[in-house]
Amino acid sequence: xxxxxxxxxxxxxxxxxxxxxxxxxxxxxxxxxxxxxxxxxxxxxxxxxxxxxxxxxxxxxxxxxxxxxxxxxxxxxxxxxxxxxxxxxxxxxxxxxxxxxxxxxxxxxxxxxxxxxxxxxxxxxxxxxxxxxxxxxxxxxx
Length: 142
Known about the structure:
With 142 residues, the chain is an alpha+beta fold. The protein has helices at 3-12, 15-31, 59-67, 76-80, 126-140, and strands spanning 48-54, 83-87, 107-112, 115-121. It has one domain (3-28, 46-140): Glutaredoxin, CATH 3.40.30.10. A four-stranded mixed sheet has the order 2-1-3-4, with helices on one face. Helix 2 packs parallel to helix 5.
């Protein structure tokens, strides 16, 4: 999606968009088969996760952790794409493939089975985050 449309989308986001995200993703969570199990058959949906790249002293990371962190795992988005926090300076763990390196903190990378499907660079507040995340999750669950 073109970045200008994403920015417009983010600027229009509000609390009701979170509610629509919950409704839109409800079916995806029910179908995602996110339970444990070492092996998955090829017919099962891919596992999504949200990787947060952060670093010590990042005030925007701290702000996200204060504003979004406590509620994220309780949302449909958080259940659909559980959060995984990584230090931006550490080597990438095995099984994680990015389109390009994370440069800014925070950077949020949506992955499907460890492969990047979308990215949010920076944190400009709740509306910005939820709006862009909703867009990425909608595209990833199509």
